Amino acid sequence: MIKKEKPISRKIDDLEGYKPEDADFFRLIITERQKKVKEKLELLTETTRRINEEGNNDNSTYSLHMADQGTDAQEREKTFLFASREGRYLKYLNRAMKMIDEGIYGICNDCGKSIQKKRLELVPTARLCISCKLKEEQRRL
Fold this sequence. Notes:
Strand content: under 5%
Largest sheet: none
Oligomer: single chain
Structural class: mainly alpha
């Protein structure tokens, strides 16, 4: 006999939603993520500085070789893209913290219902509940 699964929407509805009493817990999660992002940004800044210093070093035997110049440029671009992504994520984390302070954190921007706690634990910057996010993804397809 084949066991029938509950529809996915039913499983989502069974998840516990965010409550204002959970604010301190999520503040801690966001603070930890902010700390990690800032550490990554510091490392990326140091990497950029090092790459620039090595590229400007006149003592380098290969400093004029086109392949090395291309590699240096690619490393700078890659580091910049990582830093840009981390900077955006830090902005979203800061926005989430501000939303907690304003008492509007954990509320779905589309339906106005409480966002599921499990979703916020995984994505503390989430502004949509799971159901609305799934609908948004379906619209994109």
